Amino acid sequence: MDKLFTLLVVLVAVLAILPILHIIAYITWRGLPVILSNGLSFFTDLPAAVVEEKPGGIAPALAGTIFMTFTATLIAVPLAMLAAIFSIEFPNHVLTRAVRVASRSLLEVATVLIGMLIFVLLVLPTGRFTALAGSLALAIVMIPYVYTYTELALLSVPRTYIEAAYSLGMKRSQVVFYVTVRIARRGLARGVAIAVTKAMGETAPLLFTAFGAYSVIFGGPLEPASALPLMVFQFIQTGYENWRTLAWGGSFVLLVLYLSVFIIARILVREVKY
Amino acid sequence: MTSRRPLHDIIFFYSLALPAFLIVVILSLLLLSQLGMSIPILRVQGLSTYTTTTWRPMYDPPPDRAWYGLLPAIWGTMVSAVIAILLGLTFTIALVVFMEEIAPRRVREVFSTIIDLMAGLPTVLYGVWGLAFLGPLLHKYVMSPLHSHLSIVPLFSCEPLSGATVFTAGVLLSIMITPFMVALVQESYRSIPYTLKEAAWSLGMTRYEYVLLNMRMIAPSIASAILLGFGRASSETAAVTLVVGNAVNIGFCIFAPAYTISSLIANQFTESQDFPYMLNALFAGGLILLIIGLIVNTIGVLMLRRVRF
Amino acid sequence: MVSPAIEVRNLKVRISGKDILKDVSLRVPEATITAVMGPSGSGKTTFLKVLNRLIELVDGVEVSGEVKVFGMNIFDMNVYEVRRLFGMVFQIPNPFPHLSIYDNVAIGARINNVARSRKELDEVVRWALEKAMLWDEVKNRLRDPPWRLSGGQQQRLCLARALAMKPKILLLDEPTANIDPVNTAYLEDALRALRRDENVTIVIVTHIAHQALRVSDYIIMFYDGRIVEEGPTEEIAINPREDVTRRFLRGEI
Fold first, then answer.
1. How far does A86 lie from chain C, in Å, by closest CA?
2. Distance between CA C90 and CA C129 in Å, rounded?
3. Do residue B3 and residue C75 have CB atoms under 8 angstroms apart?
């Protein structure tokens, strides 16, 4: 009886992890050939008109992802880190409790709703979809991740170093920025890496904000833009063969990007030591 | 004994409080905007927005000509989420038991890494795989056979026309929420004091009985995983939109295409530019999603605190 | 006492409702080594942390009374300026793990604007390490991280870090409790030299009677949150007035 139970558990456990392995294999199988057969132009060209034979390239999606992930990180990281420092320095303040609740809620909420928020705040009043709006939406998605991981990392700094810093006459801000943050920097970097992964991979927040644009590589922050996940999402649903091909190629690129950041985040974890 | 707070400390406080405050403001704006944009349609259609099944976009506004009923989408969200947690819980418990009780350390680490990998994978990639592979697979080997042989069962009573059904969405979601649920249950399982485990073994329990005992001890966190997993499943947009079929449908059969609230929003957004009040209807959908999420997550977190040994 | 470096009157400290220091009044003479001694739990460390107002970092602390350092009331002053008067060495060595040996010493000097140029900084670092009797052992590996040093060496490094501030008063909280006898001897030698050559006022908290007798010129005896007695070391050593002191010196408490 026990043997049966064990067998069942092992089978189901293996079954549970098979999908991800298959996903990686499958996306590589369908996406890598697209890149190989199109070469560099896959990364540098615009998507071709639907009637053509060659699919063109995904340059707008790449440009958009780079721009929006970068600007979202610039906005989210300082904001979330400072808020986390506030929570550490003033743990009993009512604002700290409020921020924790807010962060947890933003973490749990459907990301499409975050896109809708920016839609209401920015897109409706200005009447245009913009890359900037996309960046803002992604920034909000990133905030809870950076906040939570920063708080965790700062909390783990042994108190004795903080006391030593104060005893040297350091002011509060000096203690925080020269000592606490610097000792915890690997944990902080890991939080940023994880948040960047999220920003890179999200689709829903961009539906209402950046909207997607494929006639130029990048029109600027005040024009609609695409991003890798958005492009994949939009193109895979079209009826046009060559655009679906682009979607597969883009899926593969996105997969590779994700795996790279994943590995980097892992390496960062291993090296924390006091 | 108090002396004046140094000016430096005051500046320190306010410059840190500002970002913190901003985050709270962002959440508040989210709630307010969702509510504000829903009000127009709720005023015109009332609460039956949530209880009617007709979705009739027209250029003339509701309630006279057009009508936007969200019940099918709500139903789709519920059904897909329920399927997701049923399957997901099975996976979760198997994985936790496997990693904590059966697997040697190396294997456990490998599984752990793989689960982490699953947790962060961009959801659109799940969707693309679901659309191209999982859907057709389920269609051919699960749904069609079940329909041909067991169509007496109401769940299987309709003929699946393709892989894009609410059942497929549920299965895909179960894979996606498993890592999250595993993290919750595993942490709880690990915190069971060693002495309790020793007591169980000393009583001569088999592995099966022992695991059952442990699971009963951490039952609140399993309940929490179910609730929080439900919340996750109902929020997912990109992957679900690609596999759920996006048709207005409601009924007992799970082999039919359907909408979820999030897929309705994603799918109909561009349409909503042309039809007055449709956008508001979508926001009303977002509102109910928000409320469901809030309730489910709050209870789920509270349950987590009730684990005691 | 001519003009005490530290003068305390009616100091009371309560932490989370519990009385730790109950009406303490004492004086610490200038340019001497004063041992604050007593059994564990008598409030010595708390007393030390009141002096540089580090105690205020603790949750739920209430402090009342008067503390004057060189005639200045520390509770009227800017807290950061108060802390800069003191250098502190803690019970467990705590050099900053993310800084090199050099930078650990230098940070004390930098924060307090003791050195203005790179050259001055180098001189201060060398001076501090020499006074801490560590220079010879680390002069060729100043860029190394501190965890390569032994516990005793790390503690001397912490002393150097505090000295680089050029503090008027040095506070040491059971500095040798966790290090070996050889390094303890080094540290005590360093303290004597500092008192003799640099006129630094030193306050060392210890629960080891021998150390107090060996190292100090002046003794303050703590017990259960109160001062039992104070006086020059020779007097206390030969003829303690209080019974508690006598029992402590005999190792009975």
1. 15
2. 17
3. yes
* Amino acid B309: pLDDT: 62
* CB spacing of A168 vs C94 below 8 angstroms: no
Which run of H or of E encompasses C147? none
Question: CATH homologous superfamily for A60-270?
Answer: MetI-like (1.10.3720.10)
CATH class of domain segment(s) C6-249: alpha beta
Q: Tell me: the pLDDT tens digits for B216-232?
A: 888 899 999 999 999 99
Domain B70-304 in this protein, CATH class: mainly alpha
Q: Does B234 touch chain A (CB under 8 A)?
A: yes
B293 confidence band (pLDDT: 50, 70, 90) = very high
Q: Which of C32, C26, C33 is nearest to C7 (CA)?
A: C26
Distance from CA of C65 to the nearest CA of B (A): 8
Q: What would the pLDDT profile of B27-54 be if each residue is shown by its tens digit? A: 999 999 999 999 998 888 888 888 888 8
- Closest by alpha carbon to B142, among B170, B181, B175? B170
Q: Three-class SS string for B168-205? A: HHHHHHHHHHHHHHHHHHHHHHHCCCHHHHHHHHHCCC
Packing angle, helices C101-111 and C118-131, rounded to 10? 110
Mean pLDDT computed over B147-170: 87
Contact assignment for B8 to C80 by CB distance below 8 Å: yes
pLDDT greater than 60 at residue B3: no
